[in-house]
Amino acid sequence: MALTKVIVLGNSVAKGTEAKLDVFYDCFQYKSEVVNLVRPTQTWSSILERILSDWTEDEVKVINAGEKGNISTKAVNQLKNKLLLSSGDYVLVIFGTEDTLESTRPEAFKKNLEKIIGEITKQNAIPILFTSVPISERMTATGYTLYQVRQYQADLSRLANLARSIAKEKSLPLIDLNRYFLNNHLAYDHLFKGYLPDGVAQSAMASFIAGEILPILGVKIFPKITLNDYRKVYSDAENFLTRHNGFTDLTYFQGEFYVAFRTGAVHGFRGLFGGKTLVLRSKDSLNWVKDAELKVEDFVETRDPKFLRIDGRLMLYAICHKFSPRVTVSYGFEKLGEGRWSQPFECTPGVFWRPKKWGDKYMVANYGWVYNEKGKRHFGVKLFQSSDGHIWKEISTILDYKTDANETDLFVDNGKLVAFSRAGRQSNEEMLISTYIPSENQWETVSSGRIIQAPCVFKVKDKIMVSGRYCSQSDERFRELREDWNKFTNYVQASDKEGYRTVADSTGIDPARIEEYHHGLRTGIFLMDGTRPRLVMELLSAGDSSYTGVVQYGDEYLISDYSMHEYYPPIRQPGDWETPVDIYISRVRFGE
Question: Residue 433: CA atoms inside 13 Å, Cβ hemisphere, count?
Fold first, then answer.
């Protein structure tokens, strides 16, 4: 496999790590007043590398040489470092914002860009010129007057026009980041200090830049995707018993949006700490009110809700756990009116995922498990069918216990029933794709070759899309780090007065590797190219995250997920990651 190197040359905007994660929220590390900034793995260039690598046959390495405070004059002097430039196939040139703030004259800026371009060309690399991110009125919050900001905006506009004219004169590729931000209210609103894209904006701009670069690399089918909105819709961070909110689903019913999720103290149920399901509703997807709290009595946990619309009715299914006896059962609720839901009705043992209509019946993938002789669980998935959403009957085995498959989303495409399943170690953890053959009551299964957990499948015109949790590292690196994670989390030291504590140092495992593993979990949106998922956008997220719901509304798609990125702490010992976790909803639009 050949290697394509992309060098990023530029300023703080290019570097990407000088901004807060989200300008609209505190983003404090848990139990501290340290603000979480964009990490190197969350920058636009890091996401860009992952997208480009997914869409090309070559390995793509993006090397970010952006520097805080860098201006074009300083960069000209840096060009003496031939080693950096000669190692790149493409060089992204991003200057303008800090040149404006440092009062670089337009004629000097033009000469500097021409020198930079000339040196890159001498090194047999291809320069790709950028206009810079605009300056917004948010800069007034940092002490500048509105008059000063207006002057900066005018000066920056002149430098952007110079970059456009140079690209045209020299027939160079141009990525007009300035125009992109001015035309995209979400990106423009998410400028930290008025000129630094925060984590939300960098997630959005990474997909935009990928869409501009991939045609240069010979890829013509990357779908245009625009992030129109991203916002937190629920948090209860100060309440220990309900600070962890996750495992979402989303639907639109009788003129209102509904989002459902599990709320509890920690990720999983343990001891007396269980969870219940919350349902919120909204007329505009922006302002949400609580519609219901759903819980099945005698069960410690009611979680992983999934919606189903049936002939003008709305159903919700949730998984219920209890310890004694240790059982897992899926229950259903039916909406009766505003804020009113039926008493729970039992469906079947096991874990319902997301039901779908197929023909005149309703289908659901239900996963369960068996224990081998060593006491280890192995998972499998079965297909259940219903006429009314209340009574469910098993009709087929989608994936047997050899696969370790569990969370499975059903998808109906041109009359075919297809299952997308999260698989376990028996199947290398790669998402499995199974197509039903009704005449034989059998399934044909192939691997996607990619780890995607809790897949949610939806269609955009003729394209099949998947959203779910994926690894920002390579899958191979993820598996390697996961082994350390298992050892790190399973070691228990003797109890002290505060209860049982786990100490990382005693395991001999570097906590930095655990942090790399845990922080690498993200919410991704993929296009299915045959059986291969290709990344098109990564939503701002990290750690305990994802489990999406998707609903189409007009020409937009709303995507719900959950994430702990705002509170993300340094990991030094097991349990450090048990922070508050919040619910988010994004709105995206796909172009031609």
Answer: 20
What are the strands of the beta sheet with 582-590, ordered from one edge?
225-234, 582-590, 556-563, 545-553
Helix/strand number for the chain, H first, E second: 12, 33
Q: List domains and CATH numbers for the chain.
A: 3-222 (3.40.50.1110), 231-472+520-590 (2.120.10.10)
Cα separation of 113 and 495, whole Å? 63
Give the Cα-Cα-Cα angle 527, 175, 17 (nearest 5 degrees). Answer: 80
N-terminal to C-terminal alpha carbon distance within the chain: 30
Distance CA 355, CA 251 (A): 12
Amino acid sitting at position 127: P
Residue 501 has pLDDT above 50, yes or no: no
Hey, which residues does 368 pair with through a beta bridge?
380
Sign of the Cα pseudo-torsion (257, 28, 64, 157, in order): positive
| C-alpha separations of 161 from 164, 283, 326, 560 in Å | 5, 42, 67, 39
* Distance from C-alpha of 569 to C-alpha of 52, rounded to nearest angstrom: 29
At which residue do the structure tokens 């209340």 appear? 390
Task: Give 268's pLDDT tier (boundaries 50, 70, 90).
Answer: confident
Largest interatomic CA distance in the chain: 78
Is 558:80 a contact under the CB 8 Å cutoff?
A: no
pTM > 0.90: yes
* Tokens representing residue 147 in the block: 């008059």
**Cα 492–chain centre separation:** 32
∠ CA 383-388-394, nearest 5°, is 20
pLDDT digits 0-9 by tens, 190-208: 999 999 999 999 999 999 9
Under the banding of pLDDT at 50, 70 and 90, the label for residue 162 is very high
Q: How confident is the model at residue 495 (pLDDT cuts 50, 70, 90)?
A: very low
DSSP state of 52: H
Q: How far is residue 169 CA from its own chain's centroid?
A: 39
Distance CA(15)–CA(64), nearest Å, equals 6
Query: What's the average model confidence in pLDDT over 434-456?
Result: 97
Residue 81 to residue 87: CA distance in whole angstroms: 11
> Which residue, among 458, 401, 13, has the nearest Cα to 198 in the 3D structure?
13
How far apart are alpha carbons 168 and 147 in whole angstroms? Answer: 32
